[in-house]
Amino acid sequence: MSESIRFLMCPPDHYDVDYVINPWMEGNIHKSSRDRAVEQWQKLYYTLKDHAIVELVEPAKGWPDMVFTANAGLLLDKTVVLSRFMHPERQGEEPHFKAWFEQQGYTVHELPQDLPFEGAGDALLDREGRWLWAGYGFRSELDSHPYIAKWLDIEVLSLRLIDNRFYHLDTCFCPLSGGYLLYYPGAFDAYSNHLIEGRVPAHKRIAIAEADAVNFACNSVNINSVVVMNKASKDLKQRMTEVGFQVIETPLTEFLKAGGAAKCLTLRTTEPVLEDVHANEPIESRTIRMQGHLLDAGIMNRALDLVVDNGGSFKVLNFDLGTERQSTSCADVKVSAPSHEVMEDIMSQLIDLGAVDRPQDERDALLEAVIQGGVAPDDFYVTTIYPTEVRIDGEWVRVQKQRMDGAIAITRTGDNIIAQCKLLRDLEVAEEVVVGVEGIRTVRKQDSREKRNKSQEFSFMGAGVSSERRVELVVEQIAWELRQIRDRGGKVAVTAGPVVIHTGGSSHLSWLIREGYVQALLGGNAIAVHDIEQSLMGTSLGVDMSKGVPVQGGHRHHLKVINAIRRHGNIAKAVEAGILTKGVMYECVQQNVPFCLAGSIRDDGPLPDTKMDLIDAQTEYSRLIEGTDMILMLSTMLHSIGVGNMTPAGVKMVCVDINPAVVTKLSDRGSVESVGVVTDVGLFLSLLVRQLEKLTSPIGVTTI
Ligand code: ARG
Questions:
Q1: 382, 409, 442: which is the final residue of a domain?
Q2: What are phi and psi of 618, to 5 degrees?
Q3: 428 and 463: one domain?
Q4: What distance in Å separates the CA atoms of residue 192 and residue 609, rounded to the nearest whole number?
Q5: Are residues 473 and 428 located together in one domain of the fold?
Q6: Rg of the chain over all Cα atoms, to the nearest angstrom
Q7: CATH code for position 245
Q8: Atom of ligand 1 at shortest distance to CA of 260?
Q9: Which of 226, 223, 219, 224 is nearest to 247 (CA)?
Q10: Is residue 448 in a domain?
Q11: pLDDT at 521
């Protein structure tokens, strides 16, 4: 028996399942047998006594979970951090444990009210004493970890629990002597698993399967080479034996009904300190301010959810609720993350939601110079579609050429500071780029409840096929906006795929161009080839467009057409030569509507106009969509996604496709400005033209 190892246990005199605070307790209220519990507890007690000294704390009536002494507190040497239970059902245990610790001469530290931490159930010392593993996610708050690090002067590694069956760290994680670790990886998020793998070499990790995990195999008491647990599979026992451990099984099924087993029923009171081990500052915190229709628009939920979903935790410091329908709310939220990396991840998403620093915390953006042309510094801030500002020398500067997936480059000429979005490939050596997530904010429109509801009515998607009447309603709205944009001299860009031609949309799109509703056309080789094929030969990919049937030898048509255009040099020259006399491309040339055809690997020909250099094509696309008010995306996923990436928020995007998945993908930019229409694009265009004609002439004369 090792005289130097001691445990604290609490006899199960008052043990019962009285309430439900974890999934194991569900359906088990008053279902455990006291006699069997006593018997099982005693068996554990005597087993441990063979290997260590076991002390007892007097059980208190009315606190049935007090048997789980692992949750009394966390101790190291003669210092203890008392637990602050998350659930009121267990908070009454705190004074009893506190009294015991004081009697034994421990220095007792108590966490602030409302900062839950559940002791050794959620914090486990590396058995070599090198650091402390601390869990959070269900019971203990991440923000308790810095206190522990400070009071116990030890490095704390925070692990996030994500499976509510394993709500305490000791239910799925058990450091063993010799640097081994018995654990269930499925209970942790990816970041935590990464952290574990970084500290414990592969040959020392004993990862167990779910079947052992749900038998609480990780909830073991380890004394030197002995490991005491409820139950282990043959395979697990064998693996443990192979690395020199002796597994002792002792059934604890009555305690499993409350969500605990061997380790939970004990608290090791002799934990050695290593001389050269000290606290670190693992947890980063930052206070952000959110303003706007936080509740109405669901922004608050989204913000708090994203903090937790990404492995952080939060505390709402204050929340001024806007009381009138139109008034906005303001909340200050302290966000904590287990590492700088996670913090940056969370912050960049909060910035998208419109989070800002409190005025007293505002800082300048961090800048780093580009060392290699076309390559940003590692930590560069990745831009989004939202209007962004960066703080440089104490001033907020609006970022120009807003687009997503770029970096923010800063140029200074004298006192003048210019911030603009740049693609990685355009970054030049020595140019300064914004890194990190400080001094960056996005400017979000504060849509009132009315405005939001209106736009929702306008947008619908993802509901499978839209009913005809719904399509008509949306088309009416779009027609109205197109009309307004045209009348005020605004700009509309169209991305169109060949389906527009196949579905008979050519004449309608031609009409839109002719009537001045389109200011730029973006597509690929195919839309132009099929459009010209239809104009010259009456077929689209060999199908007779008036009869809808394939024409003999029609599959050769499109190559004939490509050849004809090549003969004249390009599309404009073919128009000039009187070869091409109608259709979408013809109208573009006639109306001076610029177009850009971006090539791809599968292009036949291609047409001389098709840009096979994709960098050129991207540059041209982005030039053409500059200043657009609306983009109509007509059945072309690839070109539309390309365009979406270049388009700042605020530009209305209308995505039309027969495939609901495509519509959802394109419209899902998290902004109210996109509208999805699931329908046949030819039909959509014909409805649109009809509606626009109605707006022009009250009797609705068709001019096609
Ligand atoms: N019913 C108790 C609770 O939910 C069980 C505690 C188990 N203790 C532990 N260290 N895992 O709090």
A1: 442
A2: -60, -45
A3: no
A4: 52
A5: no
A6: 34
A7: 3.75.10.10
A8: 7
A9: 226
A10: no
A11: 98
Tokens at 555, concatenated: 């599959």
Is residue 275 situated within a structural domain?
Answer: no
Q: Examine residue 543 and state whether it is found in any structural domain, yes or no.
A: yes
Nearest ligand 1 atom, CA 22? 4
- The answer on 348 and 468 residing in a single domain is no
Domain that holds residue 22: 6-268
Q: Note the pLDDT tens digit of each residue in 509-567.
A: 999 999 999 999 999 999 999 999 999 998 888 888 888 888 887 778 889 999 999 99
Q: Is the CB of 68 under 6 A from ligand 1?
A: yes
Count of domains for the chain: 3
pLDDT digits (tens, 9 = 90+) for 58-89: 999 999 999 999 999 999 999 999 999 999 99
Taken in order 261, 264, 268, 272, the sign of the CA dihedral is positive
Quick check: is 153 in a domain?
yes
Q: For the purposes of burial, counting CB atoms within 10 Å of the CB of 84, is it exposed (0-12), middle (13-18) or buried (19 or more)? A: buried
Probe target for ligand 1 pocket from 8, 24, 68, with the most ligand atoms within 8 Å of CB: 68
**Please, which pLDDT band fits residue 460 given cuts at 50, 70 and 90?**
very low
Helices (H), 247-369: 253-256, 299-309, 340-352
Atom 6 of ligand 1: nearest residue by CA position = 260
CA–centroid distance, 255 to ligand 1, in Å, is 9
Those residues whose C-beta lies under 8 Å from the C-beta of residue 478, and which sit 6 or more positions away, are 632, 654, 675, 688
**pTM score, whole prediction:** 0.76
Return the structure tokens found at 198.
């970084």
Residues 387, 403: Cα–Cα separation, whole Å: 9
Q: What is the mean pLDDT of residues 600-610?
A: 94
CB 575, CB 589: distance < 8 Å: yes
Average pLDDT, the chain: 91
pLDDT class of 695 with cuts at 50, 70, 90: confident
